[in-house]
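We modelled each protein-ligand pair independently. The example shown here corresponds to the S-adenosylmethionine entry; the chain sequence is given first, followed by the ligand as SMILES.
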Amino acid sequence: MAKLSTIEKWFVNRRGESYFEKFLRKIKESGTVNLDNSSKILELGGGNGALSSLLYERFHPLSITLTDFDQEQVATARKRLEDKFGKVPETINIQQADATHLQYQDGTFDLVVAHLVLHHLGKLKDIYTGLEEVHRVLRASGTFVYVESKYKQEIRKHLEEMGFEILYRKGFYQETVIATKIDSSKDR
Ligand SMILES: C[S@@+](CC[C@H](N)C(=O)[O-])C[C@H]1O[C@@H](n2cnc3c(N)ncnc32)[C@H](O)[C@@H]1O
């Protein structure tokens, strides 16, 4: 994986909460994601923190773990939340994390979100490692929501092979996908 250049960071960090409103509308229209004050959310490659900030305001989940591989992005997200809320809300943890080597325990999260992050993880094999980490840290029947513009078919195929069911897919160049981790205990 490579860090974004200064110009790329400038470009992606212009996205504010209003940009992510559209993303949340898609999630709502899918009718497949239930978020409430008991939800534990992990955002991968969260960039400037605007999406996590919006998720916090909308759903007041039990916790949001907002992560990025790049320490500079982590600092940008922290500053955004401090500027917006006076201090980082207690239910939001901002951490440096590599999406291909997550330090969280199995089954920790109800929802994992990755907005235009997966293709930044490296080659296809690194993306598959990242997807396996998502599968590991999600609880059974948990939800993975992502937006991607590259390796779209390969990612979906790998998710299904790993034990996700694709519930929703929308978009052509950039597709929004909602997948649920199949609860294998229900097969027994
Ligand atoms: C295109 S930006 C998207 C940022 C944000 N999700 C958005 O849509 O505005 C990709 C982000 O992924 C982060 N990233 C790259 N490799 C990563 C990795 N291995 N683990 C976690 N984050 C990573 C980058 O630092 C960058 O902030």
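The chain has one domain: 36-182.
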